[in-house]
């Protein structure tokens, strides 16, 4: 699907946004009709206004309690359920961010249609005055890409297909792409990516996309485990059911790249996206519990659980990225259940040693309703990731601080980057919410996009 606004038209119908408890604007000409129909202005509530001739004169739309901040601002996504027509904002009351309303509307248009055919056309919004339509559409398009990639089952989104999606995006953006696959991973020193993916029918690979020639460097590393059986430490069925989403980090990295290019934020910066794409499968040549792997960086890793494979493939990609010393490096990964236990599905933790970077990201996350929560690289837990017979342990025993120890593991391979941020995302919406239908969802991409001017100043022309 392509998110789009309606062109301006004299036939477009007015929408009057109304906060809960606020009076209906006099210009709506609604009279006693809203109270007679029980309209209160609660979030997402719609009151259609008759024109007295059997047609529609417009609609009231409930914004909810203005004291409730956060993602409820995307309640405007529910307005896409209005009758089929073109609509425009007749009023922008205090507290309504027109940009967020426009984005919410577009996000509310999303449907995953690959296996069900095209949905019926929906209501469209004329882009409000003062809103940069191209920017909002670029953000929505990046989010749609993330959702489509995550929602596609592994039968149609293995390493081959993920590479194809990356190549299509790179071609569309005029970016450069190289892919190292199969036995070439060993020849070019990516042993842990190879080890994790070698048992699958589709070869493991490292996808490397570059956009921009000059300026400060941002490298984004996305976990691309296209399906995770758990390997020889096989997952129970209840835990395996959603593992098509274990490439959510890679999907988010690609969606973020599209946002960066589409909004112009990539200008004056060098953007690199690295995706280790594998399937953690079971076969006679699968890597085993107790194996000791030697990483690209030279650090040895004892495999104490083959179901902690994501950090292994990320480690080789992070080590490669760090060799260039980018000013900022960000990893995105559906990495640990511990993060979900701590913060639930809505709030990904992020880790960063630099306070200014962390503060900028937190502010941006709040500003665009893309919530994140800072967690610590807790130094006293470092011994937990150091086993007896190797440099590192991929799955410390005890079950405590699982998200933190995973982040500490990754940080060992990010040394060399100017600043490093790790996001432990979920990538899935368990139940439908405004602008977020049940299924794959982007987490962190819009926050990073919003924060980027504070995180990485572009190189200006001389």
TrEMBL record:
GO molecular function: manganese ion binding; metalloaminopeptidase activity
Top-rank taxon, per record: Bacteria
GO process terms (BP): proteolysis
Pfam families given in the database record: Peptidase_M17 (PF00883), Peptidase_M17_N_1 (PF21337)
Record carries keyword Protease: yes
Keyword annotations of the record: Aminopeptidase, Hydrolase, Manganese, Protease
InterPro entries: Leucine_aapep/pepB (IPR011356), Macro_dom-like (IPR043472), Peptidase_M17_C (IPR000819), Peptidase_M17_N_1 (IPR048816)
Domain Cytosol aminopeptidase stretches: 305-312
Any one GO cellular component localisation term in the record: cytoplasm
PANTHER family linked: LEUCINE AMINOPEPTIDASE-RELATED (PTHR11963), PEPTIDASE B (PTHR11963:SF20)
Family: Belongs to the peptidase M17 family.
Name of the protein described by the UniProt record: Leucyl aminopeptidase family protein
């Amino acid at each position: 699907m392509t998110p789009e606004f309606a062109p301006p038209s004299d036939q477009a119908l007015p929408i009057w946004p109304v906060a809960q408890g606020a009076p209906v604007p006099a210009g709506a000409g609604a009279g006693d009709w809203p109270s007679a129909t029980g309209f209160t202005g609660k979030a997402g509530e719609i009151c259609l206004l008759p024109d007295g001739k059997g047609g529609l004169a417009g609609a009231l739309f409930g914004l909810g309690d203005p004291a409730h901040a956060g993602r409820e601002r995307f309640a405007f996504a529910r307005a896409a359920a209005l009758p089929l027509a073109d609509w425009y904002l007749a009023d922008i009351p205090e507290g309504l961010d027109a940009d967020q309303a426009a984005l919410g509307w577009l996000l509310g248009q999303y449907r995953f249609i690959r296996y069900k055919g095209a949905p019926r056309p929906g209501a469209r919004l004329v882009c409000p005055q003062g809103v940069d339509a191209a920017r909002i559409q670029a953000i929505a398009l990046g989010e749609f890409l993330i959702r489509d990639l995550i929602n596609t089952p592994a039968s149609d989104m293995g390493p081959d297909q993920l590479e194809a999606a990356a190549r299509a995006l790179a071609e569309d953006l005029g970016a450069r792409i190289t892919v190292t696959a199969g036995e070439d991973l060993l020849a070019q020193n990516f042993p842990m990516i190879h080890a994790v993916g070698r048992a699958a029918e589709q070869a493991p690979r490292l996808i490397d996309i570059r956009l921009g020639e000059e300026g400060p460097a941002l490298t984004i590393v996305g976990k691309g485990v296209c399906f995770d059986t758990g390997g020889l430490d096989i997952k129970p069925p209840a835990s395996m059911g959603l593992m098509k989403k274990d490439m959510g980090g890679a999907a988010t990295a690609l969606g973020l790249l599209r946002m960066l290019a589409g909004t112009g934020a990539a200008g004056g910066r060098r953007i690199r996206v690295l995706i280790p794409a594998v399937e953690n499968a079971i076969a006679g040549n699968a890597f085993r519990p107790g194996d000791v792997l030697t990483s690209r960086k030279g650090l040895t890793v004892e495999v104490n659980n083959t179901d902690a494979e994501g950090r292994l493939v990320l480690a080789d990609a992070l080590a490669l990225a760090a060799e260039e010393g980018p000013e900022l490096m960000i990893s995105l990964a559906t990495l640990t259940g511990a993060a979900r236990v701590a913060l639930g599905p809505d709030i990904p933790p992020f880790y960063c040693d630099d306070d200014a970077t962390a503060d900028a990201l937190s502010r941006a996350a709040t500003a665009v309703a893309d919530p994140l929560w800072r967690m610590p690289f807790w130094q006293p837990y470092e011994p937990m990731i150091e086993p007896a017979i190797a440099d590192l342990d991929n799955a410390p025993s005890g079950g405590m601080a699982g998200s933190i120890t995973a982040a500490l593991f990754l940080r060992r391979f990010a040394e060399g980057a100017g600043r490093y941020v790790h996001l432990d995302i979920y990538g899935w919406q368990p139940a439908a919410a405004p602008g977020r239908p049940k299924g794959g969802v982007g987490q962190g991409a819009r926050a990073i996009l919003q924060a980027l001017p504070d995180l990485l100043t572009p190189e200006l022309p001389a």
